[in-house]
Design a protein that fits this description.
It is a single chain. The chain is mainly α and 465 residues long. Helix 4 packs antiparallel against helix 6 and helix 6 packs parallel to helix 9. The chain contains 17 helices and no strands.
């Protein structure tokens, strides 16, 4: 980005993010498809474990996401040195947090799975998968911090290329370990876990090298000792509400998975297969939401407030069209797609019902993501935090348990409450964005700044002077 103050095209930002997310989706789909050749129980363990991994990485969001927004804002304001320092600190702190998470997941995998009510029959598989993949969580921490910093400079292509390489290697290793092909031992779920860690290690190394050359001045290893207390407070000011927000999402999702586990391994497997298909719709919307967050943060930092305000609505309408069309296509071909994963007719029937409900879910999710990320981009992260605390815990979790378990509506009832939660948070974000609280404050700051630098203009003298 030659000129940090110029508006970055939404399309230029979004399509590499989409491809990166699409490749991550393929990686997950390949995991699920290949693991389904082992057993439905193995699929249930992978789906359950991935929810757990998302939950334990929420601490990383506090630093990585807060740093990403600040990097974009600082670059928009042409404060390149501060942006560089923020990126370095985010990587260092995230690595320490990730290491702590890795140790805990490696030491207590079975105990954690049992605490979250995973069926006893699945605990041996969970012990293998969680200890290995969870033990490599420090790599996820590094990848998150590095890719977020790189992406928020406007370079969304770099992480995309790395995702391509990671995806190819992962599929090859999975194929070898699951089927005993290409000279690999036939290790089943153990091999899938090893494949995941190896791919993440390679991706983290390449991202780290790319990060060293991301800013105008090359980053040296000694620079990772850098710590700026003032800038770190800025990161936490924006980041800690984001951390709480994401914590609400992943922990409520983890609880919802534990509710589904109470219904049985079949329902858990159906939800995992459904997640794989739903991810395609989600990543389309999320790529647009991430792109508009970067775009608005740059515009906000550059003082282009009115342009930032209108950009959110443009991204929202584009996103609504895209996710709705894709949800419809997936629903129409749902039974065939689910048949690729399992021959179990009961699981397929449940999955098709959920895909029908997905037609209602995706527009609400897009509304929530587009406007929620827009609020985050201007620093209004506390609002999204409080709306998440209210809606996710009350509607998506407590109400889901009552409707799905107590009233006996099962997986359909749980999913209906998740849809209700998305629309409530989306509508709250819409009214907040229309109120323009943070945008008006920024406009006033820009007006004051402009008045103070106009030559020949003096402030009125105080009375009596």
């Amino acid at each position: 980005m030659a000129d940090r103050g110029q508006k970055i095209s939404l399309w230029v930002l979004a399509w590499p993010i989409f491809i990166e997310l699409f490749l991550q989706f393929l990686l997950g789909a390949a995991d699920t498809l290949m693991v389904s050749r082992i057993s439905d129980d193995a699929v249930a363990v992978v789906g359950f474990s991935n929810q757990l991994f998302q939950a334990v990485t929420t601490l990383l969001v506090t630093v990585a996401s807060g740093a990403g927004i600040l990097i974009a804002q600082k670059l928009g304001a042409r404060q390149v040195g501060d942006a560089r320092t923020i990126g370095i600190m985010s990587v260092s702190v995230s690595a320490v947090i990730g290491l702590v998470l890795s140790v805990n997941l490696y030491v207590w995998p079975t105990e954690i799975a049992a605490l979250l009510k995973l069926p006893d029959t699945l605990l041996p598989l969970a012990q293998t998968y969680i200890s290995i993949v969870g033990g490599g969580m420090v790599l996820v921490a590094l990848m998150s911090a590095l890719s977020t910093a790189i992406r928020n400079t406007g370079n969304t292509k770099g992480p995309m290329y790395i995702a391509i390489g990671m995806n190819v290697v992962h599929v090859i290793l999975n194929y070898g370990f699951i089927f005993g092909a290409l000279g690999f031992p036939k290790w089943g779920l153990l091999g899938v876990a090893i494949s995941t860690v190896v791919c993440r290690l390679l991706a983290a190394i390449v991202l780290f090298i790319m990060f060293l050359f991301t800013f105008e001045h090359r980053i040296a290893i000694k620079d990772f000792k850098t710590f700026n207390g003032k800038l770190f407070k800025e990161i936490l000011r924006i980041g800690w509400p984001l951390g709480v927000n994401t914590s609400c999402w992943v922990f409520t999702q983890l609880l919802i998975y534990s509710f589904i586990a109470l219904l049985g391994a079949g329902e858990l497997a159906a939800r995992t297969y459904m997640n794989t298909l739903e991810s395609f719709c989600f990543m389309l919307g999320y790529s647009i939401a991430l792109a508009v967050q970067i775009q608005i943060a740059h515009l906000f930092g550059a003082g282009k407030i009115k342009e930032a305000y209108g950009t959110a609505y443009r991204a929202l309408w584009i996103g609504l069209v895209v996710v709705t069309v894709n949800a419809l296509v997936i629903y129409l071909f749902g039974s065939r797609l689910l048949g690729l994963f399992t021959p179990n007719k009961d699981i397929i029937a449940i999955g098709v019902s959920l895909l029908g409900m997905n037609l209602l879910l995706q527009p609400g999710k897009m509304l929530n993501m587009a406007l929620g990320n827009s609020l985050n981009a201007v620093g209004d992260t506390r609002f999204t935090m409080w709306s998440s605390i209210f809606s996710m815990w009350l509607l998506a979790t407590a109400l889901a348990y009552w409707v799905g378990i107590e009233l006996g509506w099962g997986l359909i009832g749980i999913y209906a409450c998740m849809i209700f939660d998305e629309y409530v948070r989306g509508i709250m974000s819409l009214f907040r964005w229309r109120g323009r609280k943070y945008l008006r404050l920024a406009e006033q700051r820009e007006a004051d700044k402009a008045a103070s630098v106009v030559p020949g203009i003096r402030k009125p003298a105080a009375p009596g002077v």
